[in-house]
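Researcher: We're teaching a course module on how sequence relates to structure. For the next exercise, students receive a sequence and then see the predicted structure as C-alpha cells, so they can try to spot secondary structure elements on their own. Here is the exercise chain.
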Amino acid sequence: MRYSILLLISVLFGCSKSSPLESLKHEIKKEFSKNEGTFAVAFKDLQTGDTLLINARENFHAASTMKTPVMIEVYNQVAEGLLSLTDSIEVKNEFHSIVDGSIYKLDLGDDSEQGLYTVVGTKRTLADLVYDMIIVSSNLATNLVIELVDAKRVTQTMRSLGANDIQVLRGVEDSKAFQQGLNNTTTAFDLMIIFEKLATGNVVSAEACDDMNRILLDQKFNEIIPAKLPEDVKVAHKTGSITGVRHDSGIVFLPDGRKYVLVLLSKEMTAPNAGIESMATVSRMIYDYATRN
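Model: And here is the predicted structure for the students to work with:
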C-alpha cells in the first residue's frame, strides 16, 4: 500500500511538470498577448518530429503566402510537360475578375516591385516571373503566372499534397472578388505541410524542391522569421502582408544541417510593427528551443 501511494505521488508530480515544448508554447502565447490581434504558429522540427501548434487550423487571408502554392503548381506543370521555365510570357497589365470577367489593372503604387510595369508589352521567361513573384512578391508577376497555371489547379495540387484548407481562388487586386469575400485563404497547418514537403524533397521531385528552395532562400523581406536569428542561419521563406495582416512561412536551415519548418500568421492587428516585433521574437524563441542541445 505504501509503495502504491509513493508511486501515485511520483506520477502526479511527474505529470505536473511541464515539458520544454509546453513551456515554449506558454511563453509564445505570453509574447503574443502583448498585441491586439490573432496569431497562429506551426512549428515542426524535421529531425526530432517535435511539433508546436497554436491556432494552426484557423483560417487567415493568405496574402502573398499563396505565391508559394502558385510556384509549386508551376513546377508541377513543368514536370507534366505542360510548361517550360524557359517559356516566354508577355507582360501585360490587364486581368479578368473571377466575379464577372470584367477587366481590371494592377496599381503600380500598391506593388512591392515596380520594374515589371516598365516593360509591359515585352516578354519575360516564366522562370524570371516566378523568381520575382517570390523574392520581391511582385503582384504583376503573380497575376501573369496564375493566369497561366489556373488558380483551380493550384488548389487541386495543394489537396494532393495533403493541404486541405489552402484555397487559391484568384490573382491579386481583384476588387470585385474581394468585396464579395472571395479571397485566397490559408492555415498555418497547411503551410507547414507544404514547406515540410519542400524541405524533404517531396514536392514534384527532389530536383524541383532544390530549385524552389533556392528561390525561397533569396527572399528580400526578412523582418519576421530571419530577423533575430544568427547570420549563419539560412531561411527559405515567403512572407505576406495586407492591412492588419503580417505572415511569414518557410524552412530554417541550421549550420549543422538540421532544419525545421516555421509558419507565423497574424490578422486583425492594430499595431503591425509591434506585431512584427513579437513574431520575430517568437521565431528566436523557437530557434533557441531547436538548438538547445
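Model: If you want an answer key for the exercise: Residues 82 and 291 are 43 Å apart (CA to CA). The first strand starts at residue 38 and ends at 45.
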